[in-house]
Amino acid sequence: xxxxxxxxxxxxxxxxxxxxxxxxxxxxxxxxxxxxxxxxxxxxxxxxxxxxxxxxxxxxxxxxxxxxxxxxxxxxxxxxxxxxxxxxxxxxxxxxxxxxxxxxxxxxxxxxxxxxxxxxxxxxxxxxxxxxxxxxxxxxxxxxxxxxxxxxxxxxxxxxxxxxxxxxxxxx
Length: 172
Fold this sequence. Notes:
This protein has one domain (2-163). It contains two helices and nine strands; from the N terminus they run αβββββββββα. It has helices at residues 2-16, 159-164; strands at residues 30-38, 44-52, 68-76, 79-88, 91-101, 106-119, 122-135, 146-148, 156-157. A nine-stranded antiparallel sheet has the order 3-4-5-6-7-1-2-8-9. It starts with a helix and ends in an 8-residue tail after the last helix.
């Protein structure tokens, strides 16, 4: 169950940050706090902070390792809607996300995913995400650095590298 939650969180977070065009809003430079939660897992989620500047500012940067097809987005005022079809752990994930906010200082959204066949017993998931600008990056923090919250001793981690290694993680 723990491995399933990690896969769903990683997939949702990766896709939430995938396939964006040049006309999409850009975040203000500085420290961004992000929180995710999975409804099907009793609100289990993760919180992290990331340092953003012009070099790493895409709200949804393209992930060359993501196994996603048919990615699309549209902007409607202060709302962004995206859809994608991805492969995850032997399942096909159909994803639809809707985000609102000013995107320069805050945004929130919901990502709904259905899995065919079910992903380790999970037929669908709903992940919420909230992000807000928190000020200047922390001393010593470089653009792109990610700090997982509530995980003492982990310090800076490379979230992209962690997601690449997800298939090798063992169930505990």
